[in-house]
Amino acid sequence: MNKANKSIRCTVSQCANHCGTSDYCALDTITVGTHEANPTQCKCTDCESFCCK
User: Fold this and answer.
1) Nearest to 20 by CA among 42, 2, 43
2) Which of 8, 16, 37, 48 has the fewest C-beta atoms lying within 10 Å of its C-beta?
3) Does the pLDDT at position 22 exceed 60?
4) Could you give the CA distance from residue 1 to residue 37 in angstroms, rounded to a whole number?
5) Is the model's pLDDT at 1 over the cut of 70?
6) Are the C-beta atoms of 24 and 30 separated by less than 8 Å?
7) Beta strand pairing call for 45-47 and 32-34
């Protein structure tokens, strides 16, 4: 992936959708979800568009 979507900042370089050396996602859109029944903190959310390289 090499086209940075300047609307989606991302620092997870282990993701296949990460845009090379810049801190952006290459996807047009992402899905954000949670692994908690009642999320109350930022760490309760997940990028469900993550794909391991």
Assistant:
1) 2
2) 37
3) yes
4) 33
5) no
6) no
7) antiparallel
Mean pLDDT in residue range 6-27: 95
- Asked whether the beta carbons of 27 and 7 are under 8 A apart, the reply is no
Confidence class for position 6, pLDDT limits 50, 70, 90: very high
Q: Cα angle vertex 32, ends 3, 30, to 5°? A: 20
Q: Which of 25, 22, 23, 15 is nearest to 53 (CA)?
A: 15
How far out from the chain centre does Cα 2 lie? 15
User: What is the overall mean pLDDT for the chain?
Assistant: 93
Distance, in Å, from the CA atom of 25 to the CA atom of 15, rounded to the nearest integer, reads 9
Q: Which residue has the tokens 């009642």?
A: 38
